[in-house]
From TrEMBL:
<dbReference type="InterPro" id="IPR002126">
    <property type="entry name" value="Cadherin-like_dom"/>
</dbReference>
<dbReference type="Pfam" id="PF01049">
    <property type="entry name" value="CADH_Y-type_LIR"/>
</dbReference>
<dbReference type="InterPro" id="IPR015919">
    <property type="entry name" value="Cadherin-like_sf"/>
</dbReference>
<keyword id="KW-0479">Metal-binding</keyword>
<dbReference type="GO" id="GO:0045296">
    <property type="term" value="F:cadherin binding"/>
</dbReference>
<keyword id="KW-1133">Transmembrane helix</keyword>
<keyword id="KW-0130">Cell adhesion</keyword>
<dbReference type="GO" id="GO:0034332">
    <property type="term" value="P:adherens junction organization"/>
</dbReference>
<dbReference type="GO" id="GO:0007043">
    <property type="term" value="P:cell-cell junction assembly"/>
</dbReference>
<dbReference type="InterPro" id="IPR000233">
    <property type="entry name" value="Cadherin_Y-type_LIR"/>
</dbReference>
<dbReference type="GO" id="GO:0000902">
    <property type="term" value="P:cell morphogenesis"/>
</dbReference>
<dbReference type="InterPro" id="IPR027397">
    <property type="entry name" value="Catenin-bd_sf"/>
</dbReference>
<dbReference type="GO" id="GO:0044331">
    <property type="term" value="P:cell-cell adhesion mediated by cadherin"/>
</dbReference>
<keyword id="KW-0732">Signal</keyword>
<feature type="domain" description="Cadherin">
    <location>
        <begin position="194"/>
        <end position="308"/>
    </location>
</feature>
<dbReference type="GO" id="GO:0016339">
    <property type="term" value="P:calcium-dependent cell-cell adhesion via plasma membrane cell adhesion molecules"/>
</dbReference>
<keyword id="KW-0677">Repeat</keyword>
């Protein structure tokens, strides 16, 4: 209620209201100033309102007092129940947890005013879920209430929680929520076999590594706590089998580790142990977390293929063995109770298998062709055995046949077949070491011997020194060799082996004579090198050749200039008849040069002008000259020729420039006698050329060519 001191109660004052909720939530009586609420109020929606009031004059509309502000507070009542905003809840706790183990904390919210009364005071309690869990009334913490709760007995629990305001008193409002609690697994249970004996039946034809059966131990735990490891306890029969764990089913898979044979053993018994992989030390007191069961395996008899007595057969045979010779046999048996007969046949794969045959009944192997070790030293093929009662049951075995060597090839000299010897070699010098090779398969300790043949042993130029270790050395027997006299020597060498029968061969070693320096280094082995100067290097030879070329060029230029000068001299004067006598400063060519000059030109002056061109050289460009009249008398010319002829006859140094000499036979009265060696009474062997060695190093090559040798040139070795 609002009231102004200026209000006398006569209706002259008017009250007005403004602010939060004026006219909508609150209204005022303009005459009396009473304020009324025109709708329900909710503290949780708006806890207070701020309003302004004023008194004005009815007539003048002017305020009688200043505007005043006031607040209306909404007083709380318990009209809201507690609410679990995060519910429903999900929680877990390990099984076998002790009493009081923490599970979860829940919280309820009350919208009422916590500062006014007990409207917002909440108390928690369990409506459903006892006696397994408990809750703190004030904090809402849920804990286990029973010990040793077993997941394997009950895994899921649903707990109903209530929150009540007014401190839980009568008349308070309440709200509920659900908590789903799961017991998590711990390894508190060992694996257990459902039965103590497992019986398995296995065919004897089962393959090694194949699974022949499964056994399973039960573990009520979950996840990794239920993982089981299986092991075979050492004992009777356990070494033939192995066991592994199937990670999906946790079963023990028994596998065959070795082949089974019903005829050898019909049953096996062994024990299998199952244990947990992940143990919890808190439960060791419960007992050992493993269990043991017995496995009995009965082997079933099956119809099996024949079995060979050996996994592989190795045989030996000499090469060139006659066709049809038995070299060995294979044996296979039927080990089944029926004991059927066995038949043998070759496993044809290639043409190599045709070299041998096998007897279908006895299994004997014989040669079918002649064998050659040098062609094929080993044969590898297969033989198949089948049962007569069931030909589809077969088995196979490998057969290796080694071909033994027969000494049929003689040894031969290994490379090189050619060697060299220095001209300055000394007696006893080793010029080459040789070895031998044999196409036969040489046995251990095979020895080769080297020697010269008997016909080459008499006064040889070389000899063979057998070192008795399958090598030999070629040694010189002379003091020096001459390439001029003999460039190549052919040395026969006889090589024998030590096998039976003894084989031998004669091999020829070619020995080339070479020029060497003082250290024995070969410089040249060519025949042309004999005539080259000793000790000249390549650069020196090139320099000599260049000098020779330059000298030849100079000579050619000199001859060309001189010929040109002679031509000019001949054409200088045509007045004197003597100038027409052609003069050549050359030596006559003998009987082959009879056409070089025309003597008629001297007898007939007219011919001089007509035929003055030389016939022994290529004529130059023809020049036409003025013809002179012939002399009426040739007396002057004849006298001139006679005079010159007499002068040349008495001059011993004058060469026969224009002379003509013809010889039909060799004269017997020659002072030098005959130069031919056809009728000589002595031979080269009778001459003594030892004095050439005393003339110095310049005549060394000449002395080597004509020196006396201490060997028989008719025997070439």
């Amino acid at each position: 209620k609002l009231h102004s001191d200026l209000d006398k109660g006569v209706g002259t004052v008017k009250y007005t209201l403004s602010g939060d909720g004026a006219g909508t939530v609150f209204t005022i009586d303009e005459t009396t100033g009473d304020i009324h609420a025109i709708k329900s109020l909710d503290r949780e929606e708006k806890p207070f309102y701020t309003l302004r009031a004023q008194a004005v004059d009815v007539d003048t509309k002017k305020p009688l007092e200043p505007e005043s502000e006031f607040i209306i507070k909404v007083q709380d009542i318990n009209d809201n129940e507690p609410k679990f905003l995060d519910g429903p809840y999900v929680a877990s706790v390990p099984e076998m947890s002790p009493v009081g183990a923490y599970v979860l904390q829940v919280k309820a919210t009350d919208a009422d005013d916590p500062t006014y009364g007990n409207s917002a005071r909440v108390v928690y309690s369990i409506l459903q879920g006892q006696p397994y869990f408990s809750i703190d009334p004030k904090t809402g913490v849920i804990r286990t209430a029973l010990p040793n709760m077993d997941r394997e007995v009950k895994e899921q629990y649903q707990v109903l929680i209530q929150a009540k305001d007014m401190g839980g008193q009568l008349g308070g409002l309440a709200g509920t929520t659900t908590v789903n609690i799961t017991l998590t697994d711990v390894n508190d249970n060992p694996p257990r076999f459902p039965k103590s004996i497992f019986h398995l039946k296995v065919p004897e034809t089962s393959h090694v590594g194949s699974a022949i059966g499964r056994i399973r131990a039960v573990d009520p735990d979950f996840g990794k706590n239920a993982e089981i490891e299986y092991n075979i306890v050492p004992g009777d029969g356990g070494n033939l089998f192995d066991i592994t764990t199937d990670e999906y089913t946790q079963e023990g898979v028994i596998k065959l580790k070795k082949p089974l044979d019903f005829e050898t053993k019909k049953a096996y018994t062994f024990k299998v142990e199952a244990s947990n992989l992940h143990l919890d030390h808190r439960f060791h007191s419960v007992g050992p977390f493993k269990d043991t069961a017995t496995v009995k395996i009965n082997v079933l008899d099956m119809d099996e293929p024949p079995v060979f007595s050996k996994p592989m057969y190795t045989m030996e045979v000499y090469e060139d063995t006659p066709v049809g010779t038995i070299i060995g046999a294979v044996t296979a048996q039927d080990l089944d109770a029926g004991s059927s007969s066995v038949r043998y046949f070759m496993d044809w794969k290639n043409d190599v298998d045709s070299y041998f045959t096998v007897d279908a009944t006895e299994g004997t192997i014989a040669t079918n062709e002649l064998l050659d070790r040098e062609s094929t030293a080993q044969y590898n093929f297969s033989i198949i055995a089948s049962k007569v009662s069931n030909p589809l049951l077969t088995s196979k075995v490998n057969v290796i046949i080694n071909v033994l060597d027969v000494n049929e090839f003689p040894p031969e000299i290994s490379v090189p077949y050619e060697t060299s010897v220095c001209e300055n070699a000394k007696p006893g010098q080793v010029i080459q070491t040789i070895t031998a090779a044999d196409k036969d398969l040489s046995p251990a300790g095979q020895r080769f011997s080297f020697k010269l043949p008997s016909e080459a042993s008499n006064k040889p130029n070389f000899t063979v020194h057998d070192y008795r270790n399958n090598t030999a050395g070629i040694e010189t027997r002379r003091n020096g060799y001459s390439r001029r006299q003999q460039e190549l020597y052919f040395l026969p060498i006889v090589i024998e082996d030590s096998s039976y029968p003894v084989q031998s061969s004669t091999n020829t070693l070619t020995i080339r004579v070479c020029r060497c320096d003082s250290d024995g280094t070969i410089q040249s082995c060519n025949v042309e090198a004999i005539f080259l100067p000793v000790g000249l290097s390549t650069g020196a030879l090139i320099a000599i050749l260049l000098c020779i070329v330059i000298l030849l060029v100079i000579v050619v230029l000199y001859v060309a200039l001189r010929r040109q000068k002679k031509k000019d001299t001949l054409m200088t004067s045509k007045e004197d008849i003597r100038d027409n006598v052609i003069h050549y400063d050359d030596e006559g060519g003998g009987e082959e040069d009879t056409q070089a000059f025309d003597i008629g030109a001297l007898r007939n002056p007219k011919v001089i002008e007509d035929n003055k061109i030389r016939r022994d050289i290529k004529p130059d460009t023809l020049r036409f000259t003025r013809h002179r009249p012939a002399a009426e008398d040739n007396t002057d010319i004849r006298d001139f020729i006679n005079q010159r002829l007499q002068e040349n006859d008495v001059d011993p140094s004058a060469p026969p420039y224009d002379s003509l000499a013809t010889y039909a036979y060799e004269g017997n009265g020659s002072v030098a006698e005959s130069l031919s060696s056809i009728d000589s009474l002595t031979t080269e062997a009778d001459q003594d050329y030892d004095y050439l060695s005393d003339w110095g190093p310049r005549f060394k090559i000449l002395a080597d060519m004509f020196g006396e040798e201490s060997y028989n040139p008719d025997k070439v070795t």
